[in-house]
């Protein structure tokens, strides 16, 4: 806290006695994951997803009243939640403004592209600041922001020269081995993946990334076909993607984190943003990620526990390899 107060004097801000940080995060499941991590560290936090709100209502509580009172140290919302009337009332309330200590944009590298492509609500991320106290500290966090996007992000967040500090930390993961192999077939219609059969036999916690939901299902079906018939195979191999209900995805993450018998998780890139699963031995990418940043995000799920080592294995489509060898690969 002493360091925080020193920084607050540097930027001429004041930290309230009971500060509340408002965090915007891109995925509901990620917000829930953050809450669990913070609670383990003794930080009171809540993610304003539909499930959490329903649980509070069932307990005859009033979550927005508690937020006004500063009950939670961290309040996590989606960009869409920021635009609701209930959240607008919170941001404008005198009680909440008295406790507001920081405004945090999590996974900030998605703000610009997602606001353009499919998440209009990300355009409101900055506008929310107009409803918060002046000079409130704003923290934009990302491990994979490219130079090309940095200027656009600074503009969108209204970070003017001389009003912000850039803090860089190394993202190098020396405990990970990077392995690239060529697939023996294409991915468009494949139903068998013999080069992945070793994952079932290895019995280690491994996340297998597929770039489409369809491919995700085909890989999971292949893994299930290698296991004995019965419900046990659905415990060993689980799926995580946006087609599955939120409750199923949440149960999958809980099981994968705590159940030693659940060791293969087949997922789309939905699981690549910020999730802290400490017991993952390795990551396998079926198909080459489209950018170096995506490769880092997906690979960074492996070997996150202190003192552990892991691997990131990427199977590259044969067509990409041929194009690279011929010098015709378009970057």
From TrEMBL:
Domain Helicase ATP-binding, residue spans: 1-163
Stored Pfam families: DEAD, Helicase_C
E.C. code: 5.6.2.4
InterPro entries (UniProt xref): DEAD/DEAH_box_helicase_dom, Helicase_ATP-bd, Helicase_C-like, P-loop_NTPase
Top EC group: isomerase
PROSITE patterns from the UniProt entry: HELICASE_ATP_BIND_1 (PS51192), HELICASE_CTER (PS51194)
Keyword NADP: no
Record carries keyword ATP-binding: yes
Keywords: ATP-binding, Nucleotide-binding
Domain of life: Eukaryota
Any single Gene Ontology cellular-component annotation: cytoplasm
Segments forming domain Helicase C-terminal: 192-331
GO biological process, alphabetically ordered: double-strand break repair via homologous recombination
MF (Gene Ontology): 3'-5' DNA helicase activity; ATP binding; four-way junction helicase activity; nucleic acid binding
Reaction equations catalysed: Couples ATP hydrolysis with the unwinding of duplex DNA by translocating in the 3'-5' direction
Record-stated family: Belongs to the helicase family. RecQ subfamily.
Protein name (record): DNA 3'-5' helicase
